[in-house]
# Entry
Amino acid sequence: MRISRAKFFIFSSIPLVLLLFWQHQLALEEERQAQLQLQIQELNEAYMNTLNDLTETTQEKESLFNQLHDALERIEQIEQRNKELELILFNQQQTYRTAVAYKGSTMPALSQSCFTEKMYERAWSRLGAHGLKGTGAALVSAEQRYGVNSLILAAIAYIESAGGMSRLAREKNNLFGLGAGGANPYSNAFYFSSKEESINFVANLLSHSYLSRGGRFYCGDNLVAINMRYAADPFWAEKVGQAMAKIARAACPEGR
# Structure
């Protein structure tokens, strides 16, 4: 009887032991799952942090690249501008030196003086050429548009209009005495709506008719050649050259 009870106790305890074992295993599994979930969460957080860091790094890299690109463009623009300024200074120096050496009459007329509006206005003020004040911008523009050296244009206007004070200059804006021939020079002379129009007309005339090969009055590329068909005075080119020297010195009193 005692053996039977013992067997009964043993056999009846087995399910309980199995249940307890299963509960223990279940608890261990839940604990492992919880740990795994925590690890996954930590890995996700680490991944997101890394992704954010990479995104910020990429954005910083792109920003630095854009800044570098902009800086290189600015450097290139500055270098280009420096080259342009060097060329302008070179042309000014060459024109000045040629003019003050009284070689303006043989200087190629289709050349760049690069004299500025301010330089011409300074010259007119110093020379007392009050009738030519305000023409600096037109002279610079004509050089850029037609290629005729603006100091040559300025010198022709200076001598032909008596510093802008001739009657034709004052009443007809004719700075070059154009058309002033025949029995009644004043009536025959061209009328221009402005001094700027007069300067552009002559620059265009010289460029296409006197200085272009095949032009109607082409004899060469300088004032001496222009003189042959432009003016009756055989010393006209020399006088213009002298005026160039005078204007250049007044425009650049410090020398170049």
